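QA checklist item 7 of 12: single-chain prediction sanity check.
[x] sequence parsed
[x] length recorded as 313
[x] structure emitted
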Amino acid sequence: MLLERYQGAQVIEIDSYKEVFCRSRQNCTLQHRTQKLILAKKDGKMLYEGSVVCQSFGNAFFYYTSCMMNCIYDCAYCYLKGMYPSANLVIFVNLEDIFENVEQKIRQVPHNQMLYLCVSYDTDLLAFEQVIGYADAWSRFAAGCAPRLKIEIRTKCANRHFFESQEPLSNVIYAFTLSPQAVVERFEHDTPSLTERIACAAYAAGAGFAVRLCFDPMIYVPEWQRHYQEMLEQVFAAIAPEKLVDVSVGSFRISQDYLKKMRKQQPNSAAAWFPYEMEHGYYHYPKALMLQMEQFLVRRLGEYLPQERIFLW
């Protein structure tokens, strides 16, 4: 299907995607301007335990998987810039093997529990849905595994057409990352505007889909209080709070190793070179600023939602 879509593309066969994707001395900034598509077979480990810097939303059996690596968006603060040596896109075409691994993991989970699986951490599947259709495939797979499996598909896209073509499922959560427009314009390059994302999330929630709003990561900009307050007013003017599953809050944080690589790749990036503080191997905003930002947003969200539906990292 993919080769048919790009019939005019030059196809170069390689033995392993790592030969191209993992080679040293690549310039990710330049590659992002003309991303190449690498089709590969995923081998080895396919499910990973959720990271300590990721929100589990109270789920005991929290895992994630990657069926695509890298993203068509170019967010300046994205940890993928420090995680991968390349900005090219990798699509693992053996999705059925990943499904099989998920089914095996479900059988290991106690019968009174469910597997909570994030499937769009290392990419934005919905943003690439018209090309690969993986969000639809995951939705159909999750429908067959209910109630033992719940998945989260996280996105910054505004793909309303996808929701118009789907049926809502209680065990598929669509998590929309929202940022003030000032952050979108300065740091979230090539992404839809805040207004477009809100409109898509509002449609999905109104149509009965399980929608989560992720104010995570919070990014510092001048007058951040005003920008985040205006964002919340815009959000809840369009989306009734009772239509949401929950919301998440967390300021920017990144591993020491990832930030080191980001700074090497982006010597002029304000996002990479902010004077962060390091704690337990992770960089974050200076503690006073971090607490001020997070507590501000939690308090404001508390005007719309009960505290048990506000998850703070």
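[x] summary fact logged: The two ends are 40 Å apart (CA to CA).
[ ] second reviewer sign-off
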